Amino acid sequence: MKKNVLEYLEQTVKVYPNKIAFTDGTNGKSFNEIYNAARSLGSFLSCYKRSLILVVMQKCPEMIGAFLGVAYSGNIYVPLDANMHQSRIAQIIQKLSPTAAVCDEKSAEILHALDCKIDIFLYDEISQTKTDNEALNKIRRRQIDTDPLYIVFTSGSTGEPKGIVANHRSVISYIDDLTSILGINESTVFGNQTPLYLDASLKEIYSVLKCGASAFLIPKSHFMFPAKLISYMNEYKINTVCWVSSAFSIISGLGIFSDIRPKYLHTIAFGSEVFPINHFNTWLEALPNVGFFNLYGPTEATGMSSFYQIDNSSPPKEVIPIGKAFPNTDIFIAVEGKEITEPETHGIIYIRGSGITLGYYCDDEKTNEVFIQNPLHNNYREIVYNTGDVGKYDGQGNLVYVCRNDHQIKRHGYRVELMEIEKNANEIDGVTVACCIYSSRFDSISLFYSGELNEKELLISLRAKLPHYMIPNLLTKLDFLPKQDNHKIDRAELLKLTEDMLNG
Amino acid sequence: MDELIKILTEMHPEIDFFNHNELIEQCILDSFDIVALVAEINDVFDVRIPPLEIIPENFNSAAALYELIIKLRGE
């Protein structure tokens, strides 16, 4: 039994030392290069004990070397979006108190400017360190599979991002299941789309290390220009992609398949949000012989927890189910402590298994709200994750995602808490009160507010505070926001207003 | 041209679209902006931008994009 993700790399580097593992097309790193860089980095960082180490870099193969280097050192890696606003980086640093950061030059400048009293190192320099085998062996001997591997950040309803802590066991369990479901092997060539600072990229990183496959980190701008994207995929013979649904929708939305199609693709996995059925049909029509998988799962349960393989000869007509739980995972639907098994009845989706993460970093209160004792029994300690997603079974016994039971939505594959947008808007000078509404019918976020600022000024202020995927589609200034009898803002009225406006 | 600048400014009020010519390199426009732009241009100018014309060169400045619209209108 494996107990450390580094065992994947150590096995594979013996079989395929010179094969390129990760590349952006021009800058490629072989398993051997990744292995040596990670061990050098691990030796350098071995002076830190069980602490958090930020990895702040633009997407590149070296960033994966940095993750693994931190793992070799026995510390926990925390990848951050290098293009994040400084205020958000400062907020995260304050919350985590990391001891060090591994950076590229640009990110190092940003961190230095924040004056945040952590040790800042350049990847290019410390990856040259002489490997200290004895130190690395000593660290490994003490490590067990329940030790944390990484922390990733996600939107939080209080306006503060939450750090989710995952251990080696969770990642190993996930990757073993994922690679068997998708049929990943040494001939797999991934085209990676998701940022490396999100858990979504575990799919490529650890599947490549485990199976001796390879992954192309596709430049982000290619997803704006479908013709470039597809010629890139054909040039590098990419055969497997795991993208967020909206990346697929962009391509099908711009209409490209009459001109050019991916030639080598045989496996497509999508997830992180609902794939609109009309876009899915465009893909199926263009690529009738490809295996399509719908994946579902929250970051709190490490990547993905369930899958549904589409039968191309009779594809779903309305919604694509999220299917069945991964082999080493169990999913159940319950309402008030009672399990629901009959079809078409709504309930909350709960997940149990080795994929359940260790919770939110330094936040017992939030952790205890959703990582809870199994509501179906009280006989022994069994922590399950309450996803907050509403689900049901269809007539065939497949799980189907219905909606959220709170103000969290999915946008461009990112989790967004409407409350976080609202809180940030309320903090802006010149805004008296703001309220954020999501219309699922139009897939549109709209922000209503009262105050002195005009819409243009507010948009500029929001862009300075929030990541791009949190910027509302519509800003509407009102003299005052509609209230219910109990003086709460009337969200239903605002939703109606939004949809009236969008209806034109 | 004014019509196009208006569409762009609504997306990014902080940008001077008359003078900017690195909208793609500097990551001003993201993929969702491109999708929205293509749809807006279709509505406002009644021009369908063919997928093979959706390339960085045509979206780097308002002027380049306008030139494309004029070209497509002429066809």
Number of distinct helices of chain B: 4
Q: Helix/strand-derived class of chain B?
A: mainly alpha
The biggest beta sheet of chain B is recorded as: none
Number of DSSP strand runs of chain B: 0
> Could you say which overall geometry of chain A the principal axes of the C-alpha atoms support?
globular
Oligomer: heterodimer
Sheet with the most strands of chain A?
Answer: 6 strands, antiparallel
**Gap between N and C termini of chain B:** 19 Å
Average pLDDT for all residues of chain A: 93
- Determine the number of helices of chain A (DSSP H or I, runs of at least 4 residues): 16
Q: What integer is the average pLDDT of chain B?
A: 89
**Shape estimate of chain B:** globular
Which residues of chain B form runs of ≥5 with pLDDT under 50? none
N-to-C CA distance of chain A: 60 Å
Order of helices and strands of chain B: HHHH
Computed CA radius of gyration of chain A, to the nearest angstrom = 23 Å
Q: Gyration radius of chain B, to the nearest Å?
A: 11 Å
Poorly predicted ranges of chain A: none
Give the beta-strand count of chain A: 26
Largest interface: A-B, 25 and 18 residues
What is the strand content of chain B?
under 5%
